[in-house]
Fold this sequence. Notes:
The protein is an alpha/beta fold. The chain has helices spanning 2-14, 31-37, 49-56, 60-74, 118-130, 149-162, 177-186, 199-202, 211-222, 240-251, 281-294, 311-320, 339-349, 390-398; strands spanning 79-89, 135-140, 167-171, 190-192, 227-229, 232-234, 259-264, 299-302, 322-327, 330-331, 334-335, 352-353. Strands 1, 2, 3, 4, 5, 6, 7, 8, 9 and 12 form a ten-stranded parallel beta sheet that branches.
Amino acid sequence: MFLEFFVFRKIASKFHLQDSAFGDYNYLTTFEASKNNFSMSITKHNWTKDEIIAIYNKPMMDLLYEAATIHRQKHDPNVVQVSTLLSIKTGGCPEDCGYCPQAARYNTGVEGNDLMSVSQVKAQALRAKSSGSSRVCMGAAWRNVKDGEEFDQVLEMVRTINKLDMEVCCTLGMITENQAQRLAEAGLYAYNHNLDTSEEYYKDVISTRGFEDRLQTIENVRKTNVTVCSGGIIGMGESIEDRAGMLVALSTLNPQPESVPINALVAVEGTPMEEEKPVEIWEMIRMVATTRIVMPDTQVRLSAGRTNMSREGQAMCFFAGANSIFAGDKLLTTPNPDVQEDMKMFDLLGLIPQKPFVKVSQPQTVEAADSQFTSLGEKPKWSRPGHTIEKNLEASIKSKI
């Protein structure tokens, strides 16, 4: 204890920090101080599962302090990126993801809709921009992108939103390298493709695609100038080891994803995971903090499940390193806090919405007529493992009764 106090005095003395309450010195608390006066955290690409589990299980105060320190070294702790998630094609998905209410095989009450028009998407983007969002993420309930009129329409949506000086993200399922290049030419800023969980637990969640397909899509995106957004979901019945395994998979990517969404499962009636208990806020805080330590440069997004979190709980997540949220009353098909409530929370916490193109410069939009990459009519053979997940099968059968 004496040694710790001695070291603390030496550090504080170096930075001339005096505090009458202690009679001596206090900690640095500002972004500039931590950025300038502490050694910068180095990005590591060879994390092991055991190392990450050890971080996750640290005493909470130690975990928070380490995560917050690293967060302040790499980011302004008072700036949070705000995204709006827009479902441009809802329902009817052929996949069997155990968490997803958009899977056609489950009876979840989700009303499907055809692909939105470009004008509809533009109107929603303008609304999001006026509410403080710097990014629009468009999601389509597809297994994978198919060349044709619908994809051409999505490309036009990307061009339209980029011209509004907003960051554009898409989550459309698996894509080929050529499709990724076409999205990049249109002005796409980020592509979301979540790993969802560890490779080991993945087979207990989804049987209609393989974990390697996720990695291949990310690799295809990396061959362009588009940034990568990839994270996962906790609360699906996975173990701490699985959570660590997911972070191993993400952190060993080089470069690491620019955005990592951390979702808490929203258990929807009719899905195989409808009986899963809500994630405790402390689990979210631990997951956010661990992600921040393991991937110091990435933007950690506090995503699905915020309706079950108090403002105090969300504040702890921001302190632990979360610096991005999804705003708007719906995330694809699940509830989300109202944007005005989020802005009230920002005011209370002194948070500022991040401006667009702060991390990466705005991509140039190439018009369709000038594109170097055109439709190849590709029919890639993405994997179909085909094993049986009993709870997924039961939910599918139940939906037909």
